[in-house]
Structure formats: C-alpha cells, structure tokens
Amino acid sequence: MKLKIKKIINKKNKSPLICLTAYSKNVSKILDKYCDIILVGDSLANVLYGMKNTHQITLWSMIEHAKSVKLGVKKSLLVVDMPKNTYSNSKLALKNAKKILKTTKCDAVKIENNRKNFTIIKKLTSSGIPVMGHIGFTPQYINKFKPVTYSKKDEKKLMDDAFKIQKAGAFSIVIECVSARISKKVTESLEIPTIGIGASKFCDGQILVTDDLLGLSGFYPKFVRKYTNLKKIIEISIQKYRKDVLKKKFPNKGNSF
Ligand code: KIV
Fold first, then answer.
1. Where in the chain does DSSP place strands (E)?
2. Catalytic sites, residue numbers
3. pLDDT at 1 over 80
4. Which atom of ligand 1 lies at the shortest distance from residue 19's CA?
5. pLDDT band for position 147 (cuts 50, 70, 90)
6. What is d(CA 211, CA 127) in angstroms, rounded to the nearest whole number?
7. Looking at residue 106, what is its pLDDT?
8. Distance (Å, rounded) from C-alpha 46 to C-alpha 207?
9. What CATH architecture is 3-226?
10. How many Å lie between the centroid of ligand 1 and the Cα of residue 209?
C-alpha cells in the first residue's frame, strides 16, 4: 500500500482528517498547507458550471481541473471524483481511473455508491488504484439536493454498503447527509476512516466544498459553516478598482512603464 494512503488510514482514532475540495491551483496551493486530503469534487458541475446536478460533467473537465489543482499540491493526498457513467463497468472504470491517475498525477479516485459497484471498486483496488467510497446522499444518483431520513431498513443497507466498500479495498469512505447516530455507528464499525459532510463530528474526518465555507457559492445547507464572506470581500475590492479607474487614480505612476 502507498505510504500516503497508509498515513491517512493510520490517523483513524488518532487525529481528525482535514479534507476540502479544490478546483484550481490558486486554491489548492493554500489548502495544501492545512489539509490531509484535497478532493477535486464533481461538485464543480454545480459550483463552477452552474449545472443543476453533477450528472453531465465530463471526464475531460475533471481531468483539466485536477491538472490545475495538482500544480498547487505538494503534501496532501489528491483525490479526483470519477464522473457518473465513467465507471459503469469494471473495464471502463479501470480504463478511466488509469487515465485520471496518469494524466493528473493524483493519488486516488472517488466513486459514489449505487449499491452495485462493489466489484468495480474491487477491480480498481486490486489493480493498485486507491479508491475512496461515498455513501449516504450520493448526488450522481439523485436529481435534486434533498437529504433523507433513514429508516431501520435503510440503516442496515447503509451499514452493509460501508462494509462491502471496505471489503472491496477502499481506503476511506465519505458519508454525506447521514444522522449522527448512524454515522457514529458506521465509523465505529469500520477499520478505514470515514469522512463526513453533514454527517456529524463522529466521523474520522470532515470535508466541505471550499466555495461554500468561503461564502462564494451561495449554497448554504445546514451542514455548511460559512467561515467568511468572500463574495462581499471581492465585491468591495472590485468597487474600489472601479472607482479608481473612473477617477483616473488607477493606474498611477508606480503602475506604469
Ligand atoms: O463532489 C464533491 O465535492 C464531493 C464532496 C462534497 C464530498 O463529493
């Protein structure tokens, strides 16, 4: 097993994993100092491209963004989301995962659970490709953002899925929008780390979409904590620039040749 992956697994029960998304170099360069894992999430479909869900984002788009992100990453584990329909069978999944790893130089791929793709995960991990799973709310298989309440039966399915993903060789699992009680149970039952998003402090790590926590995306469900209002900060700077240009205060001598 690759050393970087081992280090992530070894943090379970020791120190919470710090994880965030990035879609470009300027952001990943900042995150790299503070994160264990940087994810090039297919959430970029909604956040950057204004799509209504993540279903149409292409492998090419994910690769191009991941190449940019990689330029800012020195120490964190870099994970890239496999878009929907790029891993629908083992052969296709292996071909595309290899392409992602080779072209972006990332460390791992993430695959959303659809209750059928355990053998696909196994195919990748047994070919030496590190895989992060993703259970609970899985945007690739749902049309709208709408977290659900899990029944006892659903809870059992979730638990089964988590175990199957672990057995298939995944090194970690994202748990999205699942109650504290269930995410605690899953986390305590697994040997690999869980990474929560809207899934309580009981997970082994946390992830958020960076644009959400910076106040840039305009998407603030209850699991997001908005740490700053970057939208406002950018607006103030642009207003100042506009004023300076209108008043001929920019550029000044120092800005000119
Ligand atoms: O696409 C994404 O950004 C994700 C995270 C929210 C976990 O899957």
1. 17-21, 37-40, 77-81, 108-110, 131-136, 172-176, 194-197, 205-208
2. 176
3. no
4. 7
5. confident
6. 34
7. 98
8. 17
9. Alpha-Beta Barrel (3.20)
10. 7
User: Do the Cβ atoms of 109 and 127 come closer than 8 Å?
Assistant: no
User: Where does residue 135 rank: exposed (0-12), middle (13-18), buried (19+ CB within 10 A)?
Assistant: buried
pTM of the entire predicted model:
0.97
Is the CB of residue 81 below 6 angstroms from any atom belonging to ligand 1?
yes
pLDDT digits (tens, 9 = 90+) for 201-228: 999 999 999 999 999 999 899 999 999 9
83 C-beta closer than 6 A to ligand 1: no
Ligand 1 pocket member 43 (CB < 6 A): yes
Amino acid code (one letter) for 71: L
Distances from the Cα of 137 to the Cα of 58, 70, 83, angstroms:
21, 27, 15
Q: How far is CA 181 from its chain centroid?
A: 23
Contacts of 81 (CB under 8 A, 6+ apart): 39, 40, 41, 42, 62, 109, 110
What's the pLDDT score for residue 148?
83
Q: Which residues pair with 196 in a beta bridge?
A: 175, 206
CB count in 10 Å sphere of residue 32:
17
